[in-house]
Amino acid sequence: MAEKKGEEYSGKNVKRLDQYPNNYIDEDGTRWRKGRCFFCSVHCLLYGGVDKNGKLTEIIPLDEQSKHCYRMGEHGEKFIKFHYHPARINRPLKRIGERGEDKWEEISYDQALDEISTKLKELRDEYGPETLVIAEGTYRSDHLWARTRFTNLFGNPSNIIDPGTICWCWTYTLNMSMVGWPIECSVPPWGAEAGSSILWGVRPYENGGEFSGIWRTMSAPVKRKENPGNMVVIDPLCTEEAKESSLWLPIIPGTDLALQLTWINYIIENKLYDEEFLKYWSNAVFLIRKDIKKLVRLSEIEEGGLDEDFVVWDAKRDGLLGWCSDENRYYADGEVDAQLSGEFEITFKNGETVTCITAFDELADRMSQYTVEWASGVTGLTETKIVQSVTAYATGGPAYIGWGLGSADQHGPNGANSGIAKTMLRILTGNIDVRGGEYIGFPGIIDADGEKRFPLRDSEFELSEMVTPEARAKFLGNDEYRLMSWKGFEPIDKCFRKMFGVPRPMLHQLLVTPPKAWDAILTGEPYPVKALIAWSSNPLAWAPNTKHVYKALKALDLLVVVDYWKTPTAALADYIMPAADSLERPMATTIEDAYDIVLIGDKIIEPEYERHVDYDFWRGLGLRCGQEEYWPWETYEDAVAHRLARGGVSYEEAMEEGAWVNSNPTPYKHAEVGHNGQIKGFATPSRKAEIFSSIIQDLDYDPIPEYKELPETPVSQPELAKEYPFRLVTGGRWSPMHHSEFRVPGCGTRGVWPNPIVQLHVSDGRNLGIRDGDWVWIETKRGRIKQVAKLEWGIVRGVVICQPSWWYPEQPAEEPWSLGVFDSNANVLTDDAYETLDPKTGQWVTRGMLCKIYPVTDGTDRADLVESIEPFVNEDPKGFWNNTFNKLNHKA
Ligand SMILES: Nc1nc2c(c(=O)[nH]1)N[C@H]1C(S)=C(S)[C@@H](COP(=O)(O)OP(=O)(O)OC[C@H]3O[C@@H](n4cnc5c(=O)[nH]c(N)nc54)[C@H](O)[C@@H]3O)O[C@H]1N2
Ligand SMILES: Nc1nc2c(c(=O)[nH]1)N[C@H]1C(S)=C(S)[C@@H](COP(=O)(O)OP(=O)(O)OC[C@H]3O[C@@H](n4cnc5c(=O)[nH]c(N)nc54)[C@H](O)[C@@H]3O)O[C@H]1N2
Ligand code: SF4
Ligand SMILES: [Mo]
């Protein structure tokens, strides 16, 4: 099959939104532009109107989902309130009091950049460029590459802390090592055609929205009139998804790995696997030594054999055969019958005879302990449900496991193993790049003639090659959490460049686990960290062990926060820099380089006051730190135009189109012939789907997962469980909240959820004397917080699910109030001790730890300062913002 032509990927295949021309001026003089919303990862297309006086008047949704979105409101009413909200940070604020005293002066943007960069250079001179750490959040803008470009040129080892360690970035990395693509996505493009969709700890109804494409696609199999399929929901809570499912598995939180391993075992024992895929496209046939379980390299077998090549047992030749990874073929002509099972005596080139087995046999052997009966005991699920669920997955037609936090992310030391297990399931069942199954993308950048005809990808702006080996070695955790470090990045980058002709994006892999950064700040080990820039990030809300975060932030020489609001993190800063919102900036992004599309949107309105796009912040620092030659694009628009130019599209054309997509994705791309005449295979070291990952093994980890109890469960800590008998989940998305955002009264988003909610079983509530609606304390070994109890029947008994990320913008920013960030914030309860982290990735546990829960008896202990919810509803009836907020929060 020929390589794809560039034009197949062009935006010209997208339905033109002709009825909404960009830059259209109507009869009232209102100018309309097509932009994109960045309030959540759906990124809806919007049509925004700005009147003759430069005022934003209306936002028309151009997507089905934005029409019903609770953050947007009718005619964009809520976004408009957000845009003009009196509490927005509109000019840089410089601290004039003690840290945390909430005393500020307003300064100009240029003065702030001058002062920040001067301080950064001083610190760099004294402590080295590694003294800077960046904190960021989940995808809030498409300016991430600008951050990386700045830190790389600064000489920093990429010391970034980002929730990606527990949210998807690590699965991106893990899947790069196994199948060469971030296969774990919310929904594959052909998801609606699935025989079975597996919603494993995911809530698309809330995380994408009730009207989102994500929810529509995931639920399509059960809703299909003809030939309906399955929707299996695995969740301790009876969510909307569970109610509509064909099968709900009310699992004990934190035990998912037990179920995943049992599915693998059941599939192998009952021969439900796809033998052809395993034999031809996976490395299940590669031989490993039976004694030390290491993959056999061709270099160990024959003189001149390469380290990167592997061996199989070929039944056609009744002997060993080498696999040429570089060319994705065997070192033989004609038919090959690589054996999936068997034990073979192999003579190595040093004369040693070694017993070898196939990777598949090793997997089968290791999984055989995970019986259905055992899993039932660990997970609390009935044996019937376990068998029904794996049968639906393995035999219900093409199937995919949608990405969800509950299935692996945030499971601490079991996290990476759960991720590996899920992809093993995908490979075993051959659900890789098939219609209705999982999707492998192709950035489409190299044409048959070897030219690139695709807009520049984010990774091409990052300049990872500028980071020296000396700098790389200083990455915090480089030797410990190796998968998420340069040690893991380098082999993956090599495969990615070979397959796609572009660097592997840094921004998902080089993530420092937060306690490493806090300890460097607090102890100076392994070296002093003195400066932290938090942009699109409120680490006091998102990172584990809030008290640890707080101590570290207080100890910094320089803390800069770039945000819309004075968040609890910003309240501790030296400088708060105003960020422009998504209406105030254009967008062109390969979405963190995780997709083979480009999303595009225009700037709808000029930034108000001194708000700047994040690009301006990073470029501004770059120019002041001697990086002039690397920042030729004066504005973000210029950078966007530059990246689009390689795709042959002008800025104006692109904004009209709104996206650049491959409108006709093809399956089985691994079987296509690439631009170099080779069968493509996968972007892994062996070009096979590596069910037994050579990268993971080379990083000195076991590529086969095993089940361990999480650090804090009634099984691992029976004594502690006597005092803290409940299993706590600190997570669960709900609209319209998006992490710690949309709490600010006066945006119209706090009305539905004025207070944080904790769910528990009705019977547990009765036993504990907790009534529905009571304020309750939730306590772990590390601290306690208060939330409002919501009693449920549809929840596993003994499980408590509290909402994360709470703070109270209506409280004073001054200490000790700190905007209420210790009152109801679930991360006061979570742990960041090294022994509780995942050794591969540095993930921590947010789900499945021990807690107790009891009523708040003292009325003055109420977490909320505001007695009535009135100020939280759409309008501002009591002049709340003008009176209360200004008094409390804007003392500048
Ligand atoms: N409204 C809204 N939407 C969002 C976000 C937001 O903050 N608000 N955040 C965005 C981001 S960054 C992310 S990462 C996604 C995340 O979105 P999701 O992956 O959907 O994450 P959650 O809603 O936290 O958890 C999903 C489900 O897992 C269940 N669960 C909890 N613990 C376990 C467990 O141990 N095992 C199993 N099997 N299930 C468990 C919960 O009950 C919940 O129903 O949402 C995105 N969309
Ligand atoms: N216990 C527990 N902890 C969790 C989770 C959980 O379920 N339980 N979920 C985890 C997950 S999945 C995630 S993704 C993280 C979320 O963590 P983050 O993504 O860091 O989310 P926030 O804490 O809301 O901080 C984001 C900040 O960015 C600001 N912001 C928004 N847009 C922009 C922009 O364009 N530019 C700039 N400069 N700033 C902007 C917002 O105002 C907000 O203050 O939390 C993680 N932590
Ligand atoms: S917040 Fe609403 S309008 Fe904005 S991207 Fe998400 S779903 Fe779309
Ligand atoms: Mo996330």
Question: How is the secondary structure organized here?
Answer:
Layout: E1 24-25, E2 31-36, E3 45-50, E4 56-61, H1 64-67, H2 77-83, E5 93-95, E6 104-106, H3 109-127, E7 132-136, H4 144-154, E8 160-161, H5 169-179, E9 196-200, H6 204-207, H7 213-223, E10 230-234, H8 240-244, E11 247-249, H9 256-269, H10 275-281, E12 287-289, H11 298-301, E13 310-314, E14 319-324, E15 329-330, E16 343-347, E17 353-358, H12 359-367, H13 372-379, H14 383-395, E18 399-402, H15 415-428, H16 458-462, H17 469-473, H18 486-500, H19 514-523, E19 531-535, H20 539-542, H21 546-554, E20 558-563, E21 575-578, E22 587-589, E23 598-601, H22 614-624, H23 636-645, H24 651-657, E24 659-660, H25 694-698, H26 718-723, E25 726-730, E26 757-761, H27 762-768, E27 775-780, E28 783-792, E29 799-802, E30 847-855, H28 880-889
Parallel strand pairs: 7-8, 7-19, 9-10, 9-18, 10-11, 19-20, 20-21, 25-29, 26-28
Antiparallel strand pairs: 1-2, 2-3, 3-4, 5-6, 5-21, 12-17, 13-14, 14-15, 16-17, 22-23, 23-24, 25-30, 26-29, 27-28, 27-30
Helix pairs in contact: 3-22, 4-22, 5-15, 9-13, 9-14, 9-15, 19-21
Family: Belongs to the prokaryotic molybdopterin-containing oxidoreductase family.
Keywords: Metal-binding
Domain Molybdopterin oxidoreductase: 88-621
